[in-house]
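Quick one, probably user error.
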């Protein structure tokens, strides 16, 4: 397939997610990857301070249709969940492939693998309106009927895949459900629009509600909801953009606008049901001190996402005035800005994700002319200082999943999954399965 033909690794080198209504009180088959230096910049880059070079995008030459390969032996590390089709999930672990037949079609991509690999859950469609089914599999399968249609629902799963927060009608977003595999569905209407949903931990779901959905959101309330209890107000915001809980649930980061009208990132400490303080950890002025932000103007900076690392670092998504002028700031809330990664002139950065148990970040570079061909894009590996340490090829607008310690990367293609080692001796596994949903439990 095209992605494999283009080489998985561009470089590994240093580069300069009946209701109970409640009221107040979510030897491997080692194909040899080709290592090569990054191609030279062939177009003058208007962004002189980009962290990586722009690539010359060539026309894609269609290759022969891939033939089904054999499963690798030994197997790649970890547990993998695939959707073979709308009624069949595939669980692959330790070289064993198990097919899980669903009683009804899966709704969109509403399936999940728990963070420890012990549970698979899915939200299934029903033929009749205002009905869906929550299906879950551990040692055996269980299912529960739900009082809403899952077809267009906005869903977020708990880390253990036992519960989910659901907004059945995202267009209105005026009602929200808390659903569990062994709990009755509960409905709540906050009297406002639901604008964000986040799991604080496996047993506490939080959601943000406000009268207006204009961004940044003004006069917003963050609600906390635990199974078996009604939602309660946790904290309020005068203005809030994007937000995220630290993995231990003890700190909340969010973007907002300061009194001078410029964007900032702030954090609040959280102890049980008490939220304390409001501390600024990043300002537009801080960003402009970094050499990678040359040419930026404070008033043009936008904050597009915040992502916590388990040890307490933040990755903050940035955008300036240009069409492809994006960046990521790595921030230590106790120290300040650690470094900035800036996109080349033909790529944008829609998201970034930390490895679960180490300070390695994968940042996605997307765009029709961002990769070696129009069907390929790029992913950067970034360290805790905000320095780019490596780069990999991914499919157009495709994902890349890091193992817990960033030892491995899983890169889905159209017809197969490639798992490649990122440190130590080179190892690469090609799994002839498509439709990767989730991966866990690899170092």
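Nope, works fine. Designed sequence:
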């Amino acid at each position: 397939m095209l992605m494999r033909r283009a080489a998985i690794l561009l470089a590994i080198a240093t580069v300069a997610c009946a209701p109970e209504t409640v009221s107040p009180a979510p030897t491997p088959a080692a194909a040899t990857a080709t290592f090569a230096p990054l191609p030279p910049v062939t177009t003058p880059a208007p962004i002189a301070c980009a962290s990586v070079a722009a690539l010359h995008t060539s026309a894609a030459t269609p290759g022969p249709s891939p033939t089904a390969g054999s499963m690798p032996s030994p197997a790649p590390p970890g547990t993998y969940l695939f959707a073979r089709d709308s009624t069949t999930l595939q669980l692959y672990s330790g070289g064993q492939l198990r097919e899980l037949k669903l009683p009804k079609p899966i709704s969109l991509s509403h399936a999940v693998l728990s963070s420890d690999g012990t549970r698979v859950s899915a939200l299934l469609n029903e033929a009749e309106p205002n009905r869906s089914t929550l299906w879950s599999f551990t040692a055996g399968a269980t299912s529960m009927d739900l009082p809403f249609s899952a077809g267009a629902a906005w869903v977020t799963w708990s880390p253990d895949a036992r519960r989910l927060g659901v907004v059945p009608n995202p267009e209105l977003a005026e009602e929200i459900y808390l659903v569990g595999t062994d709990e009755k569905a509960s409905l709540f209407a906050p009297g406002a629009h639901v604008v964000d949903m986040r799991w604080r931990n496996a047993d506490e779901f939080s959601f943000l509600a406000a009268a207006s959905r204009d961004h940044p959101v003004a006069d917003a309330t963050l609600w906390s909801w635990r199974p078996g209890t009604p939602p309660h107000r946790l904290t309020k915001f005068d203005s809030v953009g994007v937000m995220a809980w630290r993995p231990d649930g003890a700190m909340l980061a969010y973007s907002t606008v300061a009194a001078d009208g410029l964007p900032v990132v702030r954090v609040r400490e959280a102890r049980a049901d008490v939220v304390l303080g409001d501390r600024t950890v990043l300002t537009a002025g801080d960003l402009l001190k970094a050499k990678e932000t040359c040419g930026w103007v404070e008033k043009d900076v936008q904050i597009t996402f915040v992502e916590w690392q388990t040890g307490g670092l933040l990755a903050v998504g940035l955008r300036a005035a240009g069409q492809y002028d994006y960046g990521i700031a790595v921030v230590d809330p106790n120290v300040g800005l650690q470094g900035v990664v800036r996109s080349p002139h033909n790529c944008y950065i829609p998201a970034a994700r930390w490895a679960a148990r180490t300070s390695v970040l994968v940042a996605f570079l997307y765009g029709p002319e961002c990769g070696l061909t129009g069907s390929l894009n790029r992913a950067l590996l970034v360290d805790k200082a905000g320095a780019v340490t490596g780069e990999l090829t991914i499919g157009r607008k495709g994902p890349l999943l890091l193992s817990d310690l960033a030892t491995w990367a899983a890169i889905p293609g159209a017809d197969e999954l490639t798992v490649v080692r990122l440190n130590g001796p080179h190892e690469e596994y090609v799994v002839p399965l498509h439709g990767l949903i989730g991966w866990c439990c690899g170092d």
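The mean pLDDT is 88.
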